[in-house]
Amino acid sequence: MAEEKAQDLSNREKVLLLFDVDGTLTVPRLVIKPSMWELLKSAKPQVYLGLVGGSDFPKQQEQLGGAEAGDVRNFFDFVFSENGLCAWENGKALNSHNLKKELSEDEIAQFVDFCMVYIAGLKLPKKRGTFVEFRSGMINVSPIGRNCSQEERIEYFEFDQKHKVREKMIEAFKQQLPELAKKLKCSIGGQISYDVFPHGWDKTYCLRFVEEKQFKEIHFFGDKTFEGGNDFEIFHDKRTIGHTVKSPEETEELIKGILAKLKK
Hints:
About 30% of the residues lie in helices and about 20% in strands. The chain has helices at about 35-45, 55-65, 105-120, 150-165, 165-175, 180, 230-235, 250-264, and strands spanning about 15-20, 50, 80, 85-90, 90-95, 130-135, 140, 185-190, 195-200, 215-220, 240-245. The longest helix is centred in the middle third of the chain and has 16 residues, at about 105-120. It is α/β, with parallel strands linked by helices.
């Protein structure tokens, strides 16, 4: 689906539409709808398209249609996984950086130990597995565990909205490991987890790879644009025009509005 590239791209506006994935292009952790794909394909001859998310690339690929969609790095002009720590332009690698270059093994162990002890003491409706996931550019922490089902994910999210489980865990980390907290930023994303990475490695990290392209406008679309959310920094960055969305359907309407203005 994503590899259907028989399009004339020679007259595109110097405008980049840069999308979060979860809650923006797709329902959290679910697969993109055909209507969104069709809209993106119709937009590509007019503007440049990019993805930026905290997930690793295999998760992004899965949500954008998996193997049936073809390698989405060959459809989007820019793909930024783990906030841009892993980056591609037109399918070619731009960057690959690793958290282990920034933190000692002792510091990583301190953080993982904190997480496991804290989560062990939590009283939640359910706990599953994979509470701490070490990625190339960040650590992802999920109090319920990433192995939960879609129904359990929704149940936990509603519980978290009421009891602020993730917010309280982040505050506990800052209090219990203040020196390590000076190095690491915690950012809530998605429904069940939060990301942990060195300060400055939020989604604005990806903008260094598009600045030299001299886009007239960079529109960013995301759902976690509140303070503490993982879209907050890039949404407020002076280099972007930020759009807060509550659903993929709202994203579709905003894309249509931008394309309509460009045609005038």
